[in-house]
Amino acid sequence: MSTSRTERLNIASRYAEAIFSLALAAKKEEPVVDAIVSLSEALGAHDDARTALANPMLTRDMKSGLLAALLAKAEPLAADAVKTIAQQGRAEVLPEIAELLASKLATHKGEISAEVTSARPLSATEQKDVNAALAKATGKTVKLKLTEDASVVGGLKIRLGSHMLDGTVDTALKLMRQQLLAPQN
């Protein structure tokens, strides 16, 4: 049965909260989160593994075994958590759990993630300047996720948590067009 992204996040949030609480108590939050995020990324890169986890013909124990083999050398708390997730029939929400865990770890460390979209690659100096400006504005350590999109023409679009700053030429042109085409009173 297919579930919506909202339902998947709702399910994943309970697991992520429990895993992060256990990792904090054990003072192993970074290795636990890193192991689960790495596993999620590895599964995302391999269609066969993703297909196997989504296959209803494979038992929960088989899925658990697959994940346990992938985490054989990982932090034991992470391996146990993933084993439990698979045994509960929730292996399909592992990407959302990893996403939430990474967010919880960043918050715990006083970091914030910013998605920066530009028309061309930013130079190292430009990246440093954007990072410094965002760090000053938020008072937190900022991790930049850079993407390129030629359709923005110029300028930057920055998503910082739930906030969006759009200083792109594309958006400015669209706003100008709307204003020019708006009926005059």
What do you see in this structure?
Strand 1, helix 7 and strand 2 form a beta-alpha-beta unit. The chain has two domains: 103 residues, N-terminal domain of the delta subunit of the F1F0-ATP synthase (Peroxidase, domain 1); 70 residues, no CATH class. The longest helix is centred in the first third of the chain and has 21 residues. It is α+β, with helices and mostly antiparallel strands and 185 residues long. The mean pLDDT is 90.
CATH topology of the largest domain: Peroxidase, domain 1
CATH superfamily of the largest domain: N-terminal domain of the delta subunit of the F1F0-ATP synthase
Backbone structural class: alpha+beta
Secondary-structure element pattern, one letter each: HHHHHHEHEEEH
Care to count the β-strands?
Answer: 4
Rg for CA atoms: 21 Å
Write the CATH architecture name of the largest domain. Orthogonal Bundle
Mean pLDDT: 90
Number of helix segments?
8
Task: Report on the biggest sheet.
Answer: 4 strands, mixed
End-to-end C-alpha gap: 54 Å
State the domain count: 2
So what's the overall shape? elongated
Q: Unreliable segments (pLDDT under 50, ≥5 consecutive)?
A: none
CATH C-level of the largest domain: Mainly Alpha
What fraction strand? 5-15%
Strand order of the largest sheet: 2-1-3-4
What is the strand and helix layout of this fold?
Elements: H1 5-25, H2 29-45, H3 47-54, H4 60-70, H5 76-87, H6 94-108, E1 111-118, H7 124-138, E2 141-148, E3 156-160, E4 163-166, H8 169-181
Parallel strand pairs: 1-2
Antiparallel strand pairs: 1-3, 3-4
Helix pairs in contact: 1-2, 1-5, 1-6, 2-5, 2-6, 4-5
